[in-house]
């Protein structure tokens, strides 16, 4: 089958190969035919080494498809079922799951060190899947918990977005921050995840939503999705003055994953306000805060992993909101490419041209 492979960390291009096989099928496993997958910035971060990932590997973790085969002991799925790929499944038995914090379950991460694919030849026959999945491939074998059944009326491209970006951004506003009606919000970084945070803040009734992004097209998109104002990073100080009288925003979402933007987000959060860290950054990129400001400003700093809530419930909620027309998911897909055009999609992400590129497989 075909799959897009990164041979070494640091390479900027993927190679689409046709000699790759999805491996590991057996009890408790599911083989899925991938139909659509989104390109998330985390894929680029894994390729560059910002996020740890063994290589060679198949990127992609935001996907949807249909079940081809189920292994022994899998009772909730059957061949033909439509599923979304969940890269962070909950085991239901660990302390985090027991506390109702299933987004902190580490069971899914245990799969990241086991190869998902194998090449028929070559010096590196074993190939990993990013985050234990690897959806830039025609087929993938995953634990049954990673294949979440969805209704047949949810298109594959929409379902793929729910698998990561939309769930992450919406959840940051709805779960982690629990944005209060009438509040002021700033969202720094307005790709697919940031725009989803904008939609979440709108759903919660925020009075002012300022979208911050260096790319003009993304600022325009943010306005269409519910932002009340869209500015470049250089214009944020003026927006803070105009919207909050210089006090700072009630909620600031950092959706870039860098200490510099997190520091900017902190400085633009009002005293007693809430900074929500959504972006996935590097282990050697440190955010500096002095102990006096941390004490004196009493700002809450809330990291948000995968939307900060029960993932399965978040999927259901997102589908319900989409069906009711309360959120726009189709509008997030600004570009479409076949698997053979995957490197074009990477360029669209790097330049900020795309909110989300759907890779149709």
Main traits of this protein?
361 residues; 7-stranded mixed β-sheet; globular; 19 strands; single chain; alpha/beta
Could you explain the architecture of this structure?
The chain has about 350 residues and is of the alpha/beta class. The model has no long low-confidence stretch (mean pLDDT about 95). The longest helix is centred in the middle third of the chain and has 13 residues, at about 165-175. Strands 4, 6, 7, 10, 11, 18 and 19 form a seven-stranded mixed beta sheet that branches. Strands 14-13-12-15-16-17 form a six-stranded parallel beta sheet, sandwiched between helices. The chain contains eleven helices and 19 strands. It has helices spanning about 40-50, 95-100, 155-160, 165-175, 190-205, 215-225, 235-245, 260-265, 290-295, 310-325, 340-350; strands at about 5, 15, 20, 30-40, 55-60, 60-70, 80-85, 115-120, 125-130, 140-145, 145-150, 185-190, 210, 230, 250-255, 270-275, 300-305, 335-340, 355-360.
Strand content: 25-35%
Residue ranges: pLDDT <50 for 5 or more in a row?
none
Number of helices: 11
* SSE succession: EEEEHEEEHEEEEHHEHEHEHEHEHEHEHE
Structural class: alpha/beta
Q: Please tell me what the overall shape is.
A: globular
Global mean pLDDT = 95
- Report, as a whole number of angstroms, the end-to-end distance: 11 Å
Number of DSSP E strands:
19
């Amino acid at each position: 089958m075909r799959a897009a492979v990164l041979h070494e960390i640091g390479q900027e291009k993927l190679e689409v190969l046709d000699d790759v096989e999805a491996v590991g099928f057996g009890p408790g496993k599911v083989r899925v035919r991938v139909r659509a997958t989104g390109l998330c910035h985390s894929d680029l971060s894994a390729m560059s080494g910002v996020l740890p990932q063994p290589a060679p590997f198949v990127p992609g973790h935001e996907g949807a498809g249909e079940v081809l085969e189920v292994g022994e002991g899998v009772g909730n799925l059957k061949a033909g079922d439509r599923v979304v790929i969940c890269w962070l499944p909950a085991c239901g038995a660990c302390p985090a799951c027991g506390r109702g914090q299933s987004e902190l379950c580490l069971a899914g991460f245990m799969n990241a060190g086991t190869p998902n694919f194998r090449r028929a030849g070559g010096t590196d026959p074993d190939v990993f899947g990013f985050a234990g999945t690897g959806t830039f491939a025609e087929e993938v074998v995953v634990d049954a918990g990673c294949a979440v059944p969805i209704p047949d009326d949810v298109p594959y491209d929409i379902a793929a977005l729910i698998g990561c970006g939309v769930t992450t951004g919406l959840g940051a506003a709805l779960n982690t921050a629990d944005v209060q009606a009438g509040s002021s919000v700033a969202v720094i970084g307005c790709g697919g995840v940031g725009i989803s945070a904008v939609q979440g803040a709108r759903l919660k009734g925020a009075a002012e939503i300022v979208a911050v992004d260096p790319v003009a097209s993304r600022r325009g998109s943010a306005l269409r999705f519910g932002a009340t104002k869209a500015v470049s990073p250089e214009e944020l100080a003026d927006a803070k003055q105009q919207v909050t009288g210089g006090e700072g925003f009630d909620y600031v979402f950092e959706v870039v994953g860098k200490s510099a933007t997190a520091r900017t987000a902190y400085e633009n959060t009002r005293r007693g306000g809430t900074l929500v860290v959504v972006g996935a950054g590097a282990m050697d990129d440190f955010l500096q805060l002095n102990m006096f400001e941390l004490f004196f400003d009493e700002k809450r700093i809330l990291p948000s992993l995968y939307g900060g809530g029960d993932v399965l419930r978040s999927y259901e909620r997102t589908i319900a909101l989409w069906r009711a027309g309360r959120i726009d998911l189709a509008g997030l897909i600004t570009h479409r490419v076949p698997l053979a055009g995957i490197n074009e999609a990477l360029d669209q992400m790097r330049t900020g041209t795309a909110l989300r590129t759907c890779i149709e497989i």
